[in-house]
């Protein structure tokens, strides 16, 4: 088991996000050993960032690393750093263990 990592300059989203056991993507990802697809996780993360930062929009991914799988029914927390140079560093934890981390590009919502 890897040690828990806590970054003191990270903010935690106000509520956990969950991948429900009945999610339609799970039977095919992977049969007999389902895990949450990365695109489903990113959709939840991007939606949460949009709610927390309504004046900003994610425009791209600078870095993304999936460290371990998230299983059906598991809930997770998203933590993110203060925005710097139009990038947002984030990581997601389940049972206090980081399982995905990355850096996202952001821009003001009203900027073309």
Could you describe the 3D structure shown?
With 112 residues, the protein is mainly beta. The chain has a single domain, classed as Thiol Ester Dehydrase, Chain A, CATH 3.10.129. Helices cover 13% and strands 37% of the residues. Strands 1, 2, 3, 4, 5 and 6 form a 6-stranded antiparallel β-sheet that branches. A hairpin with a 2-residue loop joins β5 (87-94) and β6. The longest helix is centred in the middle third of the chain and has 15 residues, at 38-52. It is globular. The termini are far apart.
Features of the shown structure:
112 residues; mainly beta; Thiol Ester Dehydrase, Chain A; six-stranded antiparallel sheet; 1 helix; 6 strands; 13% helix; globular; disordered N terminus
Question: What's the arrangement of secondary structure elements?
Answer:
Blueprint: E1 11-12, E2 17-18, H1 38-52, E3 56-66, E4 75-80, E5 87-94, E6 97-108
Antiparallel strand pairs: 1-4, 2-4, 3-6, 4-5, 5-6
How far is the N terminus from the C terminus? 45 Å
CATH top level class name: Alpha Beta
Order of helices and strands: EEHEEEE
CATH topology-level name? Thiol Ester Dehydrase, Chain A
What is the CATH superfamily label? Hotdog Thioesterase
What is the C-alpha radius of gyration, as a whole number of Å?
A: 14 Å
Structural class, by secondary structure, is mainly beta
Major beta-sheet overview: 6 strands, antiparallel
Number of strands: 6
Helical content band: 10-25%
Number of helices: 1
How many domains? The number is 1
The best one-word shape is globular
Low-confidence stretches: 1-8
Content of β-strand: 35-45%
CATH architecture designation: Roll
The residue-averaged pLDDT reads 88
């Amino acid at each position: 088991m890897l040690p828990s990592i806590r970054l003191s300059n990270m903010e935690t989203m106000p509520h956990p996000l969950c991948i429900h056991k009945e999610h339609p993507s799970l039977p095919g990802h992977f049969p007999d050993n389902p895990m949450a697809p990365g695109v489903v996780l990113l959709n939840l993360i991007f939606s949460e960032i949009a709610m927390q930062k309504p004046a900003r929009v994610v425009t791209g991914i600078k870095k993304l690393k999936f460290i371990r799988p998230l299983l059906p029914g598991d809930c997770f927390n998203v933590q993110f750093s203060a925005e710097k140079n139009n990038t947002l560093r984030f990581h997601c934890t389940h049972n206090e263990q980081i399982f995905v981390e990355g850096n996202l590009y952001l821009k003001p919502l009203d900027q073309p």
